[in-house]
Specification:
By secondary structure, the chain is mainly alpha-helical. It is built from 3 helices and 2 strands. One of its GO terms (biological process) is glutaminyl-tRNAGln biosynthesis via transamidation.
């Protein structure tokens, strides 16, 4: 499948990408190569192959789902230019 310059212009417009008129032929060729690669992948026989989320089979480490403040208040406020009563102190902006 080959992408025309008009189709490349439309794809760029839909993706909100500004593409100079002189770059449209290169963009069309690159998109055509991507589609050719996708067609090549479609030729692979995957019958009986189980879908997977990663290349190495491993289980995710689970933790208990509990709400906490992380107990990092002092570390977070250590670099604050001004902290009072356990909070960031900021200048008043509304009068």
């Amino acid at each position: 499948m080959s992408i025309t310059e008009d189709e490349a212009r439309k794809v760029a417009h839909l993706a909100r990408i500004a593409v100079d008129q002189s770059h449209l032929p290169a963009l069309a060729a690159e998109l055509s190569h991507m589609l050719q690669f996708m067609e090549q992948l479609n030729e692979v026989d995957v019958e009986g192959v189980e879908p997977m989320t990663g290349v190495t089979p491993m289980r995710l480490k689970l933790r208990k789902d509990v709400v906490s403040d992380g107990n990092y208040q002092q570390k977070v406020l250590a670099n604050a230019p001004d902290a009072r009563e356990g909070f960031f102190a900021v200048p008043k902006v509304v009068e």
